[in-house]
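Long-time lurker. I teach an intro course on protein structure, and each term I like to show students one example going from raw sequence to a predicted 3D structure in token notation. This year I'd like something fresh instead of my usual example. Would anyone be willing to generate the tokens for the chain below so I can use it in lecture? Attribution to the forum is fine with me.
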Amino acid sequence: MSVRFDNPDRAEPWAQRHWDLRAAGNFIGGGTGTGFLALAAIVVLAGSKTVLPFIVIGLGFVALGLFCVWLEIGRMFRAANVLFHPQTSWMTREALVAAPLFGVGLFAIWFDDRMALVATAAVGLAFLYCQARILQASKGIPAWRHPLVVPLIIATGLAEGAGLMGVIGWFVVDDRFYMQFLPPLFAVLLVARFLVWRTYIRRLGREGAPLGTLAVLRHYQPMIFGFGHLAPFVLFLMGYVISGRSALLSVMLGAAMALVGGWLIKVVLITQAAYNQGFQLPKIPVRGIGMPRPGAKPGWSEP
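-- Reply from a regular --
Happy to contribute to a lecture. Here you go:
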């Protein structure tokens, strides 16, 4: 959904167009990959015998996300310039964390080492935090600069990782562990993501935000709630209480829906709800005799 205003003088906020699906792909790949690595660390510590599939899948998603953001760069062969500003740029910090992430991950693959996988997951969480701060540091976009964006991106990444683990975990995880422990863990992460998401939307509405941002978020809210949270939660619980092949299919379907629901949140947040600040006047001046009028902030909701 894209909300348009009769706005010939561009005073009201308008949706940014610089970050598109390729930018969203970076956050999707990075969040899903690092979240999956975090879940993989739990699975490995619980007794999984191999780390190879977990590392390959997790790092594969992170690499795909970085490839997406590389595609977005106007002059692709200047991508190395991102490494030069660690003191000011969270994007630089993300790139710098990516090096040890892949380094430790390759070490874990080479030696098939469980603790190296745990170390990779820890570095992956640092990578996920950097991604969250990239959005929060974008001060010109009210929907991104809100403080709750950081826990929202982290919670979404972990829930996406749980969803991916639910989709493919049956093939790489012990059957008993998969069915007894993963569904409740999925449900907890899903509830955490939903609570942060709902609090984020309410805080935006209460504290004031561009009307276009609020309209987009409210438009997608039923789909994000029903498809991305409620239905997966019910399916996870069903998979925990029933048995047999039906339980497995229930968990896998719920995990797939939770995974896609997280991707939808990021696509909406980055490509649809990202209205900029617009223009405002603290006070409207008066020429000649008279008192200045209260300021104007067109296109914004009232706090």
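Some talking points for your students: Residues 131 and 188 are 23 Å apart (CA to CA). The longest strand covers residues 281-284.
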